[in-house]
Amino acid sequence: MRFGIIISALFFPVFVFAACTQSGESVVYVNGIFTSKFEAQNNLDNLRDEFNSRVSNSGTHFINGYNPSHLGGAGDSIQSVTQALGRPVSSFDLKTILMQIHPEVTTQKILLVGHSQGTFYTNELYAYLTQNGVPEKSITVYNIATPAHFVADGNKYLTSANDNLITKVRELTASVGAREPLPSNILIPLSKPETAELWRGHAMSGEYLVGAPQRIVSDISSALDALSSEEVPVSEDGCFTPLDKTLGYKAAHLAYAVGDPTATAIRSGATAVNNSATSLAGAIKNTFSSIIGNRSQAGAVALAVTNIPAPQALLEEENIPSTPVEIQNEASPRVETPFPITPTPPESPQEAPAEQTTQPLAPLESPATATTSQPSPETASIIVILQTGSRTQSVPANASGNGDAEEPPPLEPEPEPEPEPEPEPEQEPEPEPEPEPEPEPEPVPEVTQLAVTSPQNNAIFSSATVQLNGTSTALALVTAIYGMTTATTTASDAGDWSFSFELPEGATEISLSALAADMLESATTTRSVVVDITPPGVPSVSITECAHSLSDDFCLVPTTNVTLAWEGVDGAAQYQIVLNGALGAIEMGTSTTVAVADHASSTIALIAHDSAVNVSATSTAREMFAYTQPLVINEIAWAGTDFSVNDEWVELKNLSPYTITLFSLALEASDGAPYVQLSGTVGPTDGTLDLDMYVIERAASSVNGTTYGIVDAFELLSHSGEELKLAWWSGTATTTIDQTPAVETCGGWCAGESAGSIGFAMFHGTSTARISMERVQGVTDGMLAASWQSNDTYTTSGSDSAGKKIYGTPGRENSKGWPEVGWSCDSDYTAITSGQFYVPPNADCIYFTGFISEKTKRFGALYQGTIGSSTPLSGYSFDKARGGNIAKDDTASIRSPNPTPADGTEFFAAIWEQRIGPKVSSDTTLFGEYFTSGTEPPHTNFRVISWVYGTGQ
Which residue has the higher pLDDT, 305 or 395? Predict the structure, then answer.
């Protein structure tokens, strides 16, 4: 049903009009060159589906402004090129589109979306519509894959750098000084790299809608949002002023109706005559030559040679096809085309406009185009149509098969009109005879000038189509010879000339000469060009660091800068990095360094470029994972153990979720000693069995009670301090993963003690032990002094060679760093500091009593008030250094007799040594009197933590 409706809109007038509404929007899609109606509708359907799937509550109406192909495709090529040069050939298609969409556009807001050649028409549609009833604020343009050099209202466009067709148009327009297409503004990866080279990356659905749907929908949505509408009177004209079908339009419609199938037949017949399939790229090349390479004087030469009908019928709207063009060939019957090649007097060149405009420019003159004759047993002759002034001659090209091209016979000059007889003068007396002058020497003819302006010698082309441009004496005959092929062209009045050749792959040397009337032939000049259409081989890339991976299962490296290496491949001039699917830097060598993201997986591949623009397939991608600090130095027993100062040990901790292979890691001091080469593995951090710890012992019995690690009789650590490093060998360099503070940071070791206090008792004095240096839990920068602490003596693990406690945590999580005295009710037991505001939770509380020696009895109590004026709330006796819990009764006592203490109420927790002996009176009673009444305390080994109830706000 959809197709029937579109066909009716194209060919039958619509007499019913609808109101032009303020609500809703209309999107008019105009297709590009060589697009069938079915393909255009399919592109529109895909665009509408992508839009509706991403934009909710869309009331947007999508309309097919179909741009048909004419003359077997040649008409569209001519139309596209001339529009690219700023002067549209025909308004036939423009009028057809306007008449087609008029009954379908029922909203004030209109967005014109063009693709390829259709972008010329969206620019021209905008110009017409804004002058015929559509306010500028209600209409805008969005162009995709545009060969035009502007967008009508300066709105957005989208052209991929991988669009080969637009690249080709840019080269051709630049070669003749025309305005180039807008620059590429996106790189869309090729979806169908197998597409023919000319069309690769250009398809609306197959490339743009597949590779950048979100960008296209976003651009269209924002363009529609920017439109506005207003109250307007209802008009029978609809949303814009309609067009009438003029006599010229009807005649052109009839001409296209006859010419389109005939042109297809002619093109097919010409292909049979030459016994080779003319490629679509070749057709476009010849069409470009007919517009860019010809002047009016030789405007039909390239068309006749390549068997493409001349576009003269398109040059003016009212021209009706009349006289056929003869294309003769001995190997096939005579074929006629209904489109004439009519001589057109040369027009003066027009300068390009300084600013963007939607108005067509005056016709441009074009340089002369070559006619190429190639000997072939199947082709006896080709009629080359030359136009000079008002005369036309047919010149048979040489078909002898010997490779020598005959020069075309000179054009017969127009007969001079006989002068009218002059009246006889009156007779006068004869003068005396004078001596005859000596004859003047005959002038030496000048030499015809010849210069090649492009390409440079030994230039490389990635297409078989090669264009040569140059200058010569005006109207000189320029001859080009390569191999068995001879081609000629005539320079323009300004002396410009050009050739377009289809060359084989490899190097070709072309000889050129020129000859003008009444002048000597120029010296022969040569120009060598190289056609390279074969892509280079596919490279194979490797990541050097992966050979020293920290995992046996995949590439895991502790760095974000990795080294890529590859072998050079045949035909490659340079290489391009593909990081996570995105094209990256260009490299000339066979190695480079690439930065990747930390704590993330990355894929790296490579493509090769040759000296042209040929690109290899993408290499096999290499995947790696960067984790800059998977392992850290976690604890150092630099003072040894209480059994022996020589029983030093160092603990490493795995911070990553992966099992680490240690063969490429080493622990070393900054001065080189000690140095420990690691081996084995260390498990991931998963919270089970402390598998993520790895202990390095100087002797097998240094630490008892741990399982994971190695024994290495490394050189003793200095008690004055060392700077230790955990280093990884990448295969090319050493990377430091972690290190301890420099010696000067703390004037030695930043934590740990060789004789640290582990408590005081009134009868025994201070007890000491060798205490380890621990990393504070959760910190990553090991170079900071604040990242380290001494073991808090509350949390310990393992034993030394004598079975005594080690004041450290080898093979276990480090201690919390609790203070020697404290009180807390929080779940993490973070001790409060004296004087702070605090609201105890309804949870267990704990007293920290590390200032009292082990095996010494102690007591703790909670008071409301201040020392000497307080009320006891609770009291508990402890047998161990880290005393028992004060359960919910504790917080309940705080709330009694008042359920909720007033903010600012003072409390304190008291802890003291409870002496035992026949000569010692009750310390508990005496300390109770001291805290409540202010009497003297029984001894000095006690601590008080004062705090204030509330939040302090």
Answer: 395
My answer on whether 601 and 722 are in the same domain is no
State how far the Cα of 75 lies from the Cα of 69, in Å rounded to an integer.
7
The whole-chain average pLDDT of the chain stands at: 77
Domain count, the chain: 6
Boundary of a domain, candidates 508, 531, 554: 531
For the residues 878-882, what does the mean pLDDT come to? 45
Distance between CA atoms of residues 555 and 681, nearest Å: 15
Give the per-residue pLDDT at 855: 80
The verdict on 715 and 644 lying in the same domain is yes
Convert the pLDDT of each residue in 188-218 to its tens digit.
Answer: 888 898 888 888 999 999 999 998 888 899 8
In a domain? residue 235? yes
Query: Interior CA angle at 702 toward 696 and 703, to 5°?
Result: 80
Same domain, yes or no, for 24 and 137? yes
Mean pLDDT on 510-524: 89
- In a shared domain, residues 521 and 554: no
Residue type, 71: L
CA angle (634 as vertex; 630, 639 as ends), nearest 5: 150
> Cis peptide leading into 439, omega within 30 of 0?
no
- Let me know if residue 420 belongs to a domain: no
Kindly report the CATH number assigned to the domain that includes residue 566: 2.60.40.10
Residue 672 has pLDDT above 80, yes or no: yes
Residues 375 and 255 in one domain: yes
Question: Six-digit token pair at 365?
Answer: 């003159």
Q: Which amino acid is at 289?
A: S
pLDDT at residue 674 in the model:
92
N-terminal to C-terminal alpha carbon distance within the chain: 75
Burial class (CB in 10 A: 0-12, 13-18, 19+), 406: middle
Rg, the chain, Cα only: 47
Measured from the Cβ of residue 350, the count of other Cβ atoms closer than 10 Å reads 14
Tell whether the model's pLDDT for residue 383 goes beyond 70. no
Three-state SS across 821-835?
EEEECCCCCCCCCCC
Range of the domain at 268: 249-346+361-396
Same domain membership, residue 614 and residue 523 = no
Residue 890 lies in a domain: yes
Per-residue pLDDT of 127-172, as tens digits, reads 999 999 899 999 999 999 999 999 998 889 999 988 999 998 888 8
